[in-house]
Design a protein that fits this description.
Blueprint lengths: L1 E7 L1 H11 L8 E5 L6 H11 L14 E4 L5 E5 L7 H5 L12 E5 L13 E7 L4 E7 L1
Amino acid sequence: MERIVITHGPEETEEVGFGLAETVRDGDVVALVGELGAGKTTFVKGLARGLFVKDLVLSPSFLLARSYEGRIPFHHLDAYRIVDPDELSEVGLRGLLPPETGVTAVEWADRIPGLIPRGAVWVKLEHAGNDRRRITLRR
C-alpha cells in the first residue's frame, strides 16, 4: 500500500501523522526518511498526538530516544548520529526495534535499514516548495 499526500504547512504535516495513528498497532515501527528540515519531527508530533500522548514531543537527537505514555507506549528514536547499528544495543535501545510494546517512530531510519523490521510503515518526507511537503507512506 502506498499513499502520497501534499501538505501546505507544518500543521497539515502534523495532521498526516495524526491520521496514521489510527492505523498503527502495538509492535509497529514507523520509519521516517527525509533531509534536514523535511518535517520528520513535525510528523512524529502528530503521530504522538493521535496516540493520545499528552507530553510535549521533542526531537531526541542528543538522547537518541524518548518514550511517552499514550493509548499504547510511544517511543521516538533518532538515528541521525548512529554510525554503527550495534550502538543501539550498547545503549540499551535495541528493544525498540521492533518495540516489545507500543509503537516506535524512527527518524533517519535509512541510516539503520537492517534494523527496521519487515512490515514497518515507511514515511518519506520531501520538500515540495516553500512550506509544502510531499509525504509518501508505504507499508
